[in-house]
Specification:
The protein contains 7 helices and no strands. The chain is mostly helical and 167 residues long. The protein has one domain: Ferritin. The radius of gyration is 17 Å and the shape is elongated. Its main location: membrane. It is a multi-pass membrane protein. Belongs to the TspO/BZRP family.
Length: 167
C-alpha cells in the first residue's frame, strides 16, 4: 500500500519538475520581454499561469498514474498510452525554452500545435483504459486550446526581428 502511494505521488509530481525548471530558467524573460509583446485583450493575467499549471500538472500526473496502475506498471500494453503521454509532456516542457528562452515564436507555435495533437492522442488512447484519467486531461486540453490561440495571436502580432535590424 505504501509503495502504491509513493508511485501515485511520484507520477503526480513528475510533470511539475519540467514546469518548475522551465519557469526557473525563463523567469527573467517574462518581465523583460513577454510583458512588452502585443497580446490580445483576452490574454489571462500573468498571476493566473502558475496557479493554472499547478492544477493542470497535478491532474495530468495523477491521470498518468491511474493509467500506469491499470495497465499493471511498465508492461507492453503501456508503451503506446504512456509513450504518448511522455511525448506530450516533453513538448510541454520544451515550449517555454522555445518561446521565452529562444524567443522563437514560430518554433513555439509548431511545438504547441504538435502538443495539441499528442494530448488528443493520449486522451484517445486512455479512453478505454481509464475514463477518469482521460477526463482529468480535459481541463489541460481546454487550457492548451487557449494557449494555442494565444501563441498564434502573439506570433501574428509580433513579427520576429531579422538579425541586424533594430526595433
Amino acid at each position: 500500500q505504501a509503495r502504491m502511494w509513493a508511485y501515485a505521488v511520484g507520477f503526480t509530481v513528475l510533470p511539475h519538475v519540467g514546469g518548475f525548471l522551465g519557469w526557473l530558467i525563463n523567469r527573467k524573460e517574462i518581465p523583460l520581454w513577454y510583458e512588452k509583446l502585443k497580446k490580445p485583450s483576452w490574454c489571462p493575467p500573468r498571476k493566473i499561469f502558475p496557479v493554472a499549471w499547478t492544477v493542470l500538472y497535478t491532474g495530468m500526473g495523477y491521470a498518468s498514474y491511474l493509467v500506469w496502475n491499470d495497465l499493471g506498471g511498465c508492461s507492453s500494453k503501456a508503451v503506446v498510452p504512456l509513450g504518448l503521454y511522455g511525448a506530450q509532456l516533453a513538448l510541454n516542457w520544451l515550449w517555454p525554452p522555445f518561446f521565452f528562452g529562444a524567443r522563437n515564436l514560430r518554433l513555439a507555435l509548431i511545438d504547441i500545435l504538435c502538443l495539441d495533437g499528442l494530448v488528443i492522442g493520449t486522451m484517445c488512447s486512455w479512453y478505454h483504459i481509464n475514463k477518469i484519467a482521460m477526463l482529468l486531461m480535459v481541463p489541460y486540453l481546454g487550457w492548451l486550446a487557449m494557449a494555442t490561440c494565444l501563441t498564434i495571436h502573439i506570433w501574428k502580432d509580433n513579427p520576429e526581428q531579422k538579425p541586424g535590424k533594430s526595433e
